[in-house]
Amino acid sequence: MPALGVNEPACTLCGRCLVACAAGRAVLTGALDPAWLEQSLLRVDGPAPPAHIRLCRHCLTAPCVDACVARALRRDAAGDAVSLDSSRCVGCYSCVMECPFSAPLARAVSGNAGRGTVIAKCDGCAQLPEPLCAAVCPTGAIRAAGDARSASSRARRRRAVGLGLAGHR
Amino acid sequence: MTRYLIVGLNVAGIAAMKAIRELDRAGRIVAVSGESHLPYSRVLLPRYLAGGAVREEMSLEPADFYRAEGTRVIWGRRVVALDHERREAALDDGTTIDFDRALIAAGGSPIIPGHLAGPGVTGLRTLEDAVLIRERASAGTRVCIGGAGPVGVKTACALAELGVRPALIVASGRILSQIADPEAASLAQRRLELHGVEVRLGTDISRALRGRAGLEALQLSDGTAVPCGLLVLCKGVTPNVAGMPSAVHGRSGIAVDGMMATRMSGLYAAGDAAETRDLIDGQTKVTAIFPNAAAQGRIAGKNMAGATAVFDGSLPRNALDLLGLPLISIGLVAAGLDARHAVRATRTAGSYRKLVYRDGLLVGALLVGEVMDAGVLQARIRRNLAGSPGLREPGQLMGEAG
Predict the structure, then answer these.
(1) Span B267-287, mean pLDDT?
(2) Which chain A residue's Cα is nearest to B290?
């Protein structure tokens, strides 16, 4: 999976990433339910620039993975994305406490005792050559480039993290 | 070939095992696990007790993780002595293991004061504890919980979910006194009471009253007595350091530096047994939280395998789901507030949020109800504490390997 790089100052809050994420995944999974339009796996918080892009960066040493008491969040087998097994998520809010990007999003679930809320987050569009949000972003605020584990990608992602935090002090 | 020994196999030990394997494929790892079960997430024990998690979901790693080449796990045994000079550990079955580098990650045990110990009194630290509590509670035994820290409160929530009405006996004047201020604590308490938990504040348990049938009641310090067939004590854990060389002992746990190394060469410690520097007050102490154990174990493992990795220090923090009401506490929120600190609190119908500033910089966040930005606040708190030695740029969150 290509890494996701985020440069919040470039974001104009056009919202294309949100549409691409929600609708694209609805098409890919065959679940063409209008409810999916609410199910984008990222958020862009405004109301005006600078935006706060709440999108998983697939950190190399991910604080959410360290903190996940249910081992629902893991680095996937290839080691290049942080994946979420939502069936294991117990809704403990530990990842919410740890993620410096506020990438985990709350999803209400019903029925399961003690699981009123679980987490949803970016899956990196693992089945696609490029994440949809990055493919439609007109300003480069969200980009996909290189291998997540390559040195240049690592350095770039460190910069992206710095920018993300600086944009949201 | 380096011989690694991991004493205790839970969050910290597993993280170290992964790090060592990644860096030193030729090394030989022996881990000693005190329990015979596949290592499980202790934080999920209250949920297991309430029937909301099954055993498989609690496993930290699948069974084949422990069978990898170059790895041997000795199940159901304890290290009773660690001889640093001979580089040899003695187990409770009389066998010995030689090593070049060892990690002490034996965790902690619930604190059960001597005057209460006996039949009908338990902690909640193992699967067996959880099964015992569930069986007794389901059979109608009146359950009391001593201590209202995160574990006590989660246990009360679990019992409430199970449909029983436990009593929470709290020595302090409020629940969650270490991680919440009076306003947040009262919101949390109201949530517990709404679900049938009886909260007794400002009174401690002075005696366990036992009869022929075992535990029958608790004598409280305020002069009253409460009926009780099972007491679950949640008053913290004490580090498991017995048998470890006295030279590595700190105040209560094992003293380590930023590389998770003890004073003795080749000996490391991580997790609930290790004492690290608290980023808020600068004191060296055990900060027994899950994310610390994972980070410390990984950093210890990297250093043991010859890389260089540094632990920033411990930022006290907790996340709780109180029967549908989330509460997150990070850094300085209640105890230790003085004239240097300013507080900004906001309230809405379903939320209470307090931000604490020291000399104008955010150093604490207490969030109830609305919590989804907690991680961003934590990142800011960490950055503001960066004057502390050893703390690095936030961008390195993702790549601590040196």
Answers:
(1) 94
(2) A67
